[in-house]
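Holo model, zinc ion. Inputs:
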Amino acid sequence: MSDATPAHPLAGHGWTPQLDELFAPLHDAGLLPGRISRVDRGRCDVVVADPGSGPDSDTGSGLRTLRADTAAVHDPDPVRRPCTGDWAAVDPAASPLPVLAALLPRRTAVVRVTTGGRSEGQVLAANVDTVLIAVSLAAEPDLGRIERFLALAWESGAQPLVALTKADLAGDAEHIRADVAAVAPGVTVLPVSAVTGGNMEVLAACLSGSTALVGQSGAGKSTLVNTLAGAELMTVRHVRDRDGKGRHTTTTRELIPLPGGGVLIDTPGLRGVGLYGGEGLGQAFSDVEQLAAECRFDDCAHGTEPGCAVNAALADGTLPERRWDSYRRLRRENAWIEARSDARLAAERRRQWKVLQKSVRDSGVIRRR
Ligand code: GDP
Ligand code: ZN
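Output:
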């Protein structure tokens, strides 16, 4: 080897020379770089380079996992709170617990809107290169749900990849693959089976760097994790498969190193995903947006206008009604979320402005006019 510099112990976890540069001032302040592997209330697990041996030393890997307090980086906006996959600066000497002193800027983030009264964002995984969407072939795949997952994945800034799991249960997996590929422009769709092992090596070869694994509960995510990691890390509970209610209990880690390099971030099973606005939807429906750009009028509402390319494609069947409806529904949802978060941001700005005005008034600056 001509390069004498040994690889950084966290290189397998995605640490780069750019991050090293970004981290320099934090390093000078005595902080350690680490990647968050799990978050609980007020605490997180963070993987750091192991300077020697110790009680939490993960012998041989050059790494160890610290449990750290996250209070110092708490943020009122849930999207800005630490999440699995984040790079952080840790003060390992803090007492009684190491402290997460800072979060490094994210390269990508998988964010969904939590269901419930407040449309708040929830980060499922940070700094991933690929979003692996697991879809079970135990039943007919729901194309609308896949489109939603794809919009979420594109919006993260990472590249989506669809794994059609349990391919051994599908009568004609290739036929279904083609149907799914038709709603996933620019995305590889791969039928896999943990039972026959079919395409598992292909899938493993498609994953490099960091991958977030998303999907509904019962989609076969735990089984995928175990197969890709080559170890029984997740307990797969054998329950009624007909209603898709497979359950798993995750062991302590959510950030799993893969034998071929890179890491897999497991996310909780999602019933549905609310979009968090943004450009991801346009990427998930790039075929539809391209079509709409071909309409005669720039502001075509795709109603009764002459020269409407969308209507022509709906009429000749090149654009299925289902996909068009799905696109419009998600667009409306996106607009609503964006309006709500804009309203929230505006309210927050007004509040900050009032606080500022009050502090200025209290200091007597205004009265001096
Ligand atoms: P999770 O909830 O997404 O983590 O799903 P699990 O990995 O727990 O799997 C749910 C159910 O699907 C379990 O009963 C698994 O044994 C089953 N399963 C997972 N992968 C496959 C597969 O490739 N083929 C078949 N036939 N069953 C599978
Ligand atoms: Zn039109």
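Residues 321-362 form the longest helix (42 residues). Residues 132 and 161 are 5 Å apart (CA to CA).
Archived with the compound record.
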